[in-house]
Write a structure and sequence with these properties.
Helix content is 7%, strand content 29%. With 69 residues, the chain is mainly beta. The chain has one domain: Rubrerythrin, domain 2, CATH 2.20.28. A hairpin with a 5-residue loop joins strand 1 and strand 2. The longest helix has 5 residues. It is elongated.
């Protein structure tokens, strides 16, 4: 009847955010999490500020959603 467990059905959908640091200028930028992201992964992505060619993932966060009462 259902394909998931009760806990999976009741858990709200979350969207992780990946934070990347430019290897050239050091600024930190964010983007939505992509499958395969992990901390310290080198990503070939242009920096929006300086145009540098590579960035490093420094953290991955999920925003805590406040519950309504």
């Amino acid at each position: 009847m259902f394909s998931g467990s009760r806990d999976e059905l009741l858990r709200p959908a979350v969207s992780p955010t990946t934070f990347l640091k430019c290897n050239s200028c050091g600024t930190v930028h964010s983007r939505p999490y992509q499958q395969g992201d992990y901390v310290f992964k080198e990503v070939e992505m242009k920096c929006p500020k300086c145009g540098g060619e590579s960035m490093t993932i420094v953290s991955i966060h999920v925003e805590e959603q406040k519950q309504r009462r």
